[in-house]
Amino acid sequence: MLKIRKSYKVRLKTNNNIENKLDQYCGSARFVWNKCLAMNLERLEKRQPILWYNELAFWLTLWKRSEEYGFLEESPSQVLQQKLRDLDRAFRDCFDKTQPLKRLPVFKKKGKGDSIRFPQGLKTVGRRIFLPKIGWIGFYKSRSISGKVKNITISKKGERWFASIQVEQMIEIGKHASDSEIGIDAGIKCFAAFSDRTLVEGVNSFRKHEDALSREQRKLSRKRRGSENWKKQKRKISKLHHTIANVRSDFLHKLSTDISKNHAKVYVEGLQVRNMSASAKGTIEEPGRSVKAKSGLNKSILDQGWFEFRRQLDYKLFWRGGMMVEVNPRHTSQRCSSCGHTAKENRVSQDVFRCQVCGHEENADVNAAKNILTVGQTGMIACQANRISGRQQEPAGTREEVLLVAS
Description:
The chain has nine helices and 14 strands. It folds into two domains: 2-171, no CATH class; 181-200 and 259-389, no CATH class. The protein is α+β, with helices and mostly antiparallel strands. The chain has a seven-stranded antiparallel sheet. The chain has a five-stranded mixed sheet with strand order 10-9-8-11-12, sandwiched between helices. The chain has a two-stranded antiparallel sheet with strand order 13-14.
């Protein structure tokens, strides 16, 4: 048995009174974050040690007793304390040398990523949840919620409020129901090509709504900032962004669930999406080339959601007793899956692969998926052989993530 934490995200049934309270609590939490962040940034400029959670919690107590910041008393203490913990974690990650993308925390803006977290005093009964200082709130329930509730995060997207209910569960991880192994090649024109010749087209949700989004954004630019019509238009744009994200998320969840049910081991490319979608503008001294074309490619790459797809696939396979393995994508699109000959001339076009030595012809993405499967299986066999021979490896029982350099 394994103890895990799982979240159930539901949409809340709110009214004006509840929404006003939630807006107020989000505003207070945002104020505390920004004020504490400003204090620490000022201390960094003066080369003074920054304030961590315990010191910031002391300042929060003083602010709540003051006349100037007494409005903080109206918000639940745990909500403000959780925001301080988030800031503390953000600074620790910033100074952690093992973090590859470390950066200083940034100030929060109103209406962008508003969220608060309740760790205590929570209840869930049927289709209702109880939150401190708010009371019972109904929600749309699409599936049963099992496990011990640990915390609830309330967030706002567009005009809707959502609750992410995190629970603690005990699950039994046994052997996967299937013994199938498969390789997956990720692409833009074809979202996923499988080594068994299955092709999955992507939804391209941003591209499908791009024209409508551009029209609505042009309408916004012609309205006076801050006016009622401007606010209405902002809500339209926010709703459209929400639709784009929902379409993509629905597609990724359905596909990753289907794969995790039918295959025990899945080999995928270890793509560096951040590097692949970097801007080509360059600098004033050394301007980039084909900037417009690269910008369009970046949009298409980010529209696929490759990283999120791998993340979902990883934990869903793990829960079912399977495994996802990342392999180095080097030369997988240029190598012949039949004879192993590697040359860029083998890739005749975007869709066609034709080996210049043995004449093997196949869909280019399927050929790459077969190579990914072969490289992944070879790497797993090598890991097992090294473990048997006594070479130093990762502890048995951990989730292995193998990056192999294909020769």
